Amino acid sequence: MINLDLKDKKILYQLDLNSRQSNSEIAKKVQLSKDIVNYRIKKLESEGFISGYYTIINFYQLGYISIRVYIKLVNTPVDKENEILDFLINNKNTFFVVKIDGNFDIGFGTYVKDIYQFEEFYQDFKKNFKKYIGKEQISIFTKVYHFHRPYIIDKEFDDTKPEYLGGKLTSKYDKLDIEILKLLANNSRIPITEISSKLKIPVMTASFRIKQLEKKEIIQGYRFVFDFKKFNYEYYKVDIVLDNTLRLKELINYIHSNPNTTYIDQTIAGSDFEFELEVKSKEHLLTIIDELRIKFPEIRELSYFTIRKYKKLLYFPEI
Known about the structure:
By secondary structure, this protein is of the alpha+beta class. Among the domains are: about 1-45, Arc Repressor Mutant, subunit A; about 60-140, Lrp/AsnC effector binding domain/regulation of amino acid metabolism (RAM) domain (Alpha-Beta Plaits). It is about 35% helix and about 30% strand. It contains 10 helices and 11 strands. It has an 8-stranded antiparallel beta barrel, surrounded by 4 helices. Strands 1-7 form a two-stranded antiparallel sheet. Helix 1 crosses helix 2. The longest helix is centred in the middle third of the chain and has 15 residues, at about 115-130. The protein is globular and about 50 Å long.
């Protein structure tokens, strides 16, 4: 682990809150000069704490839904596993692909217009790799909450508004909106002048369109890809089966308040409650779980796994 000072951590936290804000804005908030903030961000990038920038886009408002798949591989040579991963990474229907350490080996999320588009994609996948699929679990995302990382600056709870995927609302958009979203999806810090140049539109038009996309909440937020391992933290996904769901809202609020929570997933055909954390150690995770069981005795079953590596993360369908 490379040691970071408090100023570095404050810069990371500001980028986690909004990676599109300017270095001048960050400088005012962390009480450093713009040049020093610029230098420190470049250093954090070169040291691997920051490996990219992305925009959280609620593609449900573009008329899409998301279906998640976990698969357990059987009798799969390394080269064939890499072929499976390449197929998923390069497929236009996937927005995340991960290697898992647990009851499954690979997880991926899709964005599709309907279940028939998913069926076409998944049948094509099985046509190529069915013999290597042992166990599979398919769930439909209904809501996904993206939380911030107050633990970076040792805050004891998260008091910020989460970003959100899901909902039944479909917003109006046009071809120019889509072109802007494509550029922002891969790089949330792309300069407005570069968007203007690439799309051959006035800077004022690009700026106005982005503000409108934010107002419609199609753009939910701007983040950076954080290598929590460099921070000496570990990732865990927790799945819970409940005796009843009467206190589900209370459970969501309780988990949100934890500074280590990064996501809450609500699904059909998944677990009753799913959340993800970045913690100091497995012992830290188990402490959180023990406290959770005491607070919510209706928890019937609880399991967890970790992700070895994100192979793809892109919040934008190929339209």
